[in-house]
Amino acid sequence: xxxxxxxxxxxxxxxxxxxxxxxxxxxxxxxxxxxxxxxxxxxxxxxxxxxxxxxxxxxxxxxxxxxxxxxxxxxxxxxxxxxxxxxxxxxxxxxxxxxxxxxxxxxxxxxxxxxxxxxxxxxxxxxxxxxxxxxxxxxxxxxxxxxxxxxxx
Length: 153
Fold this sequence. Notes:
Arc Repressor Mutant, subunit A; alpha+beta; Alpha-Beta Plaits; 153 residues; elongated; 39% helix
């Protein structure tokens, strides 16, 4: 659903993307408005689905999840039953932070966060025991250069 968003809405969204834990007063000051209109706009944006669930960003490495793998998957299976099983397998694994179906030579790409290479192997073995895949390539991220969920408003 497409929602009409004006410049004030964009400013509010930019502030929320930066730090959603800030007070309504702080956000209102930053966008040059008062508290009640900003609250009403935020409520409207939530109801329209523009603003989703609010979560907290955790430091993966501080919690011991030091390995980030990008997993490229090719499959020769494209039937609905296989896709359902594959989707179920991904959704049941908390290690999978992102999963995308792609156009081109690679069918899927996963972002998998685990403690180490041994933990990745356990993830991989469990995945291929549940669903057949033609080819899997795992790429270990050596360094995260940029990571954001912020949209370029």
